[in-house]
Design a protein that fits this description.
- The chain is mainly alpha-helical and 492 residues long.
- It has helices spanning 25-44, 55-72, 78-91, 93-111, 114-125, 131-146, 149-166, 171-188, 193-202, 206-234, 239-253, 262-272, 277-295, 297-303, 307-316, 326-331, 341-359, 362-372, 377-394, 398-415, 420-432, 442-451, 455-458, 463-477, 487-491; strands at 7-12, 15-20, 319-320, 333-334.
- The protein has a domain at 94-335.
- It is built from 25 helices and four strands.
- The strands form two sheets. It has a two-stranded antiparallel sheet with strand order 1-2. A two-stranded antiparallel sheet has the order 3-4.
- A hairpin with a 2-residue loop joins β1 and β2 (15-20).
- α18 (362-372) runs parallel beside α20 (398-415).
- The longest helix has 29 residues, at 206-234.
- The chain is globular and about 65 Å long.
- The two termini are 36 Å apart.
Amino acid sequence: MHEDKNISELKVDGQKIIENIELNIWEAIIPVVLLMGMLAYNIFFADGVALGDYSNQFILLIGGGIAAIVGFFNKVTIGRMLTEILENLKSVFIPVMILFLVGALAGTWLVSGVIPAMVYYGLQVLNPAIFLPASVVIAAIISIATGSSWTTSATVGIALIGIGTALGIHPGMIAGAVISGAYFGDKMSPLSDTTNLAPAMAGTDLFTHIRYMSMTTTPTIIVTLIIFSLLSMNIETTGAADVSGLLESIDKTFNTTPLLFIVPLVVIALIVTKTKPLIALGVGVVLAAIFAFIFQPEVLSGLSSSNFSAVINSVFTDTSIVTDNDKLNDLFSSGGMKGMLWTIFLIICAMVFGGVMDAIGALARITRALLSLATTIFGLFASTVFSCLGLNVIASDQYLAIVIPGKMFKNAFEDKGLAPQNLSRTLEDSGTVTSVLIPWNTCGAYQSGVLGVGVGEYFVYAFFNWMSPFTTLIFAAFKIKIKQLSSKEKAA
């Protein structure tokens, strides 16, 4: 039990909101300003390696140290900080395990021929002229069905990156299309955890939230599809002749058969039937390993003296399958679980920084400062949006970016006579979807690690994600579909 008299805690859906009466706003933003400065220097002036290959991770730890010093000067004990760091690390245990399994999945799906088969048949079915909008739609359908943008990226996302890259389409564009569709589906699916969390924070029900959210989400996804359609019609691809060469190279190297699609279909079916992701992905790894022995014995023998060793290596370490096409050689390589370590370390370091910031009360203080600026209805919406964006940057966690502003702004929306679905929609439009645009956020780190495309490469092309907050602000500015509290609700 903590005895810090200057600290108060409020627990909401397993997330704590910590306030510190000793901390002022200027002290709260010191770690943020310095962290942003160090990250900006590393990215723009040191090519991302100012402190070696793990520069961003070290910078996040330094930011955590700076936040801890601010905490010491504001009567926060090291014990409290360590407790919050530990709780943050516990909260990402499952995502870290999923990342390890995704690495294993990528390796086993490669040596079993699943990914090559997806590329092989996808090249024949997906026309370059519609590839990008088709990717948005495919990702959206899978994400609505599963309620998970993460699962979508780990299954069809990987396949679409492979197909699009073989067609000569920029990986950033493909990743942007996949992420746009995946997060649209994640937002609109009643199975999604964030779609359930946002209305719980705002005080409305799930289906009212989804219906109201569709008002801003629908025009945003339509504009996204139009942009990707225009891009698809105007980008240069490798052409039919080159595609024929790619198909021939894949056919020479792998035993391609539609039976290989059993593996991803089983995984998707498990997730749709609400099987836990760890179990579903684990089944995908084991099934792919079995299929490797059945369908790709020649590939395995070319990788190692023992077929069993080749499969084990694909799970844990680097695997590269050489074909007679250089483009495919880059595509048909995987880092296994080892390839996920950089991303996992980034998530862990982000959780350390976010844990210290939470422990010293900086997150709540920054949110309250934004709330104090909300003197008009538009100002209230804008403050909520910037609060969600800021917490995605500072706390590196989309759940905190929903929980903290949701709790802090709930009464303010009621005081302005606004129905709670206004708040729940704004939380999703600015908290859920922008998390993937921050490289050190758990979502940004996960998506870039799984898809093999850096946040900087797909940021511009994730149209749905960065347009969503603007759509919400436009609706607020012009008072479009801003639901007022009924007289009955006001009386209550």
